UniProtKB/TrEMBL annotation:
The keyword Lyase does not apply. Residues 40-353 form the Leucine-binding protein domain. Belongs to the leucine-binding protein family. One of its GO terms (molecular function) is cysteine-type endopeptidase activity. GO terms for biological process: amino acid transport. It comes from Puniceispirillum marinum (strain IMCC1322). It comes from the Bacteria. Its EC number is 3.4.22.34. Keywords: Amino-acid transport, Hydrolase, Signal, Transport. It is an enzyme of class 3 (hydrolase). The keyword Transport applies. InterPro entries: BCAA_transport, Leu-bd, Leu_Ile_Val-bd, Peripla_BP_I, TAT_signal. This is Branched-chain amino acid ABC transporter, periplasmic branched-chain amino acid-binding protein, putative.
Length: 435
């Protein structure tokens, strides 16, 4: 980490347990009876630090490093300091991902596995965790997790998806486009949507939901295009768009570098279209590559740093630690997950070791009942799927679900501004300059 000498950061680390930050105050209170100095608790992190989604993997590592430092500053978990062990999943498939998780168990003796997302089927690490009777927390954002849990809850009791699944994205996009139009904020030239997806199930599921639900909201899907990953040459796809210009373009292929190339090539000869990009545009890497072409783009995420008091405080500290080009949206995910785990483990009487099923089940029970307000919103777990409830998808109470936030990049030098849902919105939608 950088800027360890920052006086403000030192002061925060000294006072975090008594400063009114809910999770920190709760954990600090639990730690008062025990001095720091017990055997370390190893936090295992199977992360994609190289390859196609390395930009995210680096942020996931940053978030864990930040949480480890802060938790250790207030006594760890009941006096046991945290140590971070990392294995690179290389943006690869199940075999590489499973091997990384197994090494963390066998070689590092990890008490828990925490990641952001990994590629693959999203079933590899739940199997590794189940075999070792440890907790696994991830933000793969896939309905495949929900289906796995429901298929065998007794085996996969310890796997938690700490954000909602991707099934919400497609319908939420259609609902938001309809609202923009009905409120008079967006006046489309027609009712057509061009949908562009990548080869990964996450992207395909979102694209299919948009395609299948479009007519219910008064829209017509005029183009449904699938591209390979990675891709840097968008000419053929853009030619089809320009031949029959749609009012809306939804790019569910989520690699930020590919999305940035799309925007750079799109603005050379733009159509009168409002562009939505799935998740990748939330990362600083997208704005860095796309530059001016990023301004005006809409994006959404079921998990991202909020722009309220808690979220802004976290973002300021995160950028101070890792630089202005870091992305608190990515780092906030693993940061929040580790804090939630630490609180649950403290409430359960301590972290368990691999294969200590009784203690790890106690932690899983506390996680399942925890309502944890983090920088990315409220983590509250659905007992049927072991995924986080979504606001407003699952609940109308913003304090009981993680917000599905829509943002717009209005300044290439800054993260997008949240424009929905209330009460988390901080800006209004702006018509892009190219349209």
């Amino acid at each position: 980490m950088t800027n360890h000498s920052s006086a403000s950061r030192r002061q925060f680390l000294k006072t975090i347990g008594a400063g009114g930050v809910g999770s920190a105050a709760l954990l600090a209170s639990a730690n008062t009876a025990t001095a720091l100095g017990g055997e370390p608790i190893v936090i295992g992190a199977p992360l994609p630090l190289t390859g196609l989604v390395a930009a995210d993997g680096i942020e996931f590592r940053n978030g864990l490093e930040m949480a480890v430092e802060e938790i250790n500053a207030i006594g760890g978990i009941l006096g046991h300091p945290l140590e971070l062990a990392i294995e690179d999943t290389q943006s690869q498939g199940d075999d590489v991902i499973a091997s990384a998780g197994q090494r963390l168990i066998d070689r590092s003796n990890a008490s828990v596995l925490i990641s952001g997302y990994n590629l693959g089927s999203s079933t590899a690490l739940p199997v590794v965790a189940a075999d070792a009777s440890v907790i696994y927390m991830h933000a793969d954002t896939v309905v495949a997790h929900n289906e796995l849990i429901k298929s065998d809850p007794e085996t996969f009791w310890g796997s938690f998806q700490y954000d909602p699944a991707e099934i919400y994205y497609g319908i939420a996009y259609l609902q938001y486009m309809r609202k923009l139009i009905d409120d008079g904020d967006f006046k489309p030239a027609n009712n057509r949507i061009a949908v562009i997806t990548g080869p990964i199930a996450y992207s395909i599921n979102i694209a299919n939901a948009i395609r299948d639900g479009a007519a219910d909201y008064g829209f017509e899907v005029s183009l449904f295009e699938s591209v390979q990953a990675p891709t840097s040459e968008w000419g053929p796809t853009l030619a089809k768009i320009r031949q029959n210009p749609p009012a809306m373009i939804a790019v569910t292929h989520f690699f930020p570098q590919d999305q940035a190339q799309f925007m750079q090539q799109f603005v050379n000869d733009p159509t009168d279209s409002l562009i939505y990009m799935q998740y990748g545009a939330s990362l600083a890497a997208f704005r860095d590559i796309a530059g001016d072409a990023s301004e005006g783009v809409l994006y959404a995420t079921t998990i991202g740093a909020l722009q309220d008091e808690i979220g802004n405080d976290f973002t300021a500290r995160y950028l101070d630690a890792f630089g202005n080009n870091a992305s608190s949206n990515g780092g906030g995910q693993t940061y929040s997950a580790l804090w939630a785990y630490a609180v649950a483990a403290a409430l359960a009487g301590g972290a368990g070791q691999p294969y200590e099923e009784e203690q790890n089940r106690k932690i899983a029970e506390r996680l399942g009942k925890l309502i944890y307000r983090s920088p990315v919103g409220t983590i509250r777990i659905d007992p049927e799927t072991l995924s986080a409830y979504s606001y407003p998808g699952d609940t109308n109470d913003p304090s009981l679900g993680m917000p599905h936030i829509f943002s717009q990049i209005q300044n290439k030098a800054e993260n997008g501004y949240i424009i929905a849902p209330a009460p988390y919105d901080v800006a209004r939608f702006q018509q892009p300059d190219w349209s």
